[in-house]
Model the fold of this input.
Amino acid sequence: MANALLGCIADDFTGATDLANMLVRGGMRTVQTIGVPVAGTHIEADAIVVALKSRTISAEEAVRQSLEALDWLRTQGCRQYYFKYCSTFDSTDKGNIGPVADALLDALGENFTIACPAFPENGRTIYRGNLFVGEVLLSESGMENHPLTPMTDPNLVRVLQRQTKSKVGLIRYDIVAKGVDAIRAYIDELKEDGVRLAIADAVCDADLYTLGKACRDLALVTGGSGIALGLPQNFHSADLLVYSGEAGDLPKIDGEAVVLAGSASKATNAQVAAWRTSKPSFHIDPIAISRGDDVVNSAVEFARSYLNKREPVLIYATSSPEDVRAVQKKLGVEKAGHLVEEALATIARRLRDIGVRKFVVAGGETSGAVVQALNVRTLRIGPQIDPGVPATQSVGANDKAPLALALKSGNFGTTDFFTKALKAL
Ligand code: ADP
Done:
């Protein structure tokens, strides 16, 4: 049994998938777990990403869960660890990025790591410690109005310093541009100066590759998914990545397919509209569910009538922002969301029980609910369907046959994503 090389802890589910997707692109066979696996579980992979839901919980609880994930990853014999957060550094002055990074360093007996959320492919760049989203500073990007983690200060050195007692430093672009040796020498200087956490500037993918190389000997790296671009090469150069096939190769799965959409985002609305021009679909109405109509059963029967013809259907709650607001006004935001998530999750389980093996799911929270209903705890990550969204397969869920899954957070994917994803699965 081979040991994993890189052990990752992600502070949310779709962020974990995004990172896993990046590692597969770098040639690492990657498995994502939903929560921390039970003690004694061994996973065969080059990289393991443990997906937590720790971004907006209390710092104390985020630290506890992250350390639990680290403890389990250490049993897998990983050579390096990675703490993944959002590329917009989503956090508050109370945490959780600083406290979690500190706790992981302490647990590993280390005294330095970098913090680099840059993701140039998605417009996130860092210069002189300031995070830009596209052309504008983080604090002018809309993130200043985020309901849970408003980002009103674009300077990440200041942001991170407010979250930690550790001294925070900066690896300026001037140093990054000089290359790997210059960065390593500067890290030594920072350490001598008592710096434990250093924001790293990066404006393009080449910077991330350089930083990745410079981080070869760090036990812990922290960042968005971008910095993960540069890490697989270290394992390649050390001849530790020996797998000869494609890292994202997945065995073929036979069985029927369905598309479930519980996201009301702009991209999902466009995807639903595109599908409905020529393919069968069933609309889930939250008001009808709250009235007591057996919407779940109607949806399952609708899908079943097409499954016999081997034709996948779309079952969707997706509505325009005005309609969603009207429903929320009537039922309450939380109740409406809960009714829809529960309905789609139950539909997924019942469809699995009648032979559906492939699920395309739109919506971050919706994906979480569906995966839980299907009792999926572990996903092997396949090839990318669209940026940030790979094809995946469940591993060892309840001794049932493996399932093929494409789980997309609301705003990801092109207009024809559903059709593309079905083809990929
Ligand atoms: P996204 O990734 O786009 O944010 P999520 O699944 O995370 O999607 O969140 C969407 C939320 O909106 C879910 O809680 C879902 O149940 C809810 N929702 C979906 N459709 C409707 C609707 N028609 N009316 C009210 N709430 C809805």
Summary: Residues 85 and 224 are 5 Å apart (CA to CA).
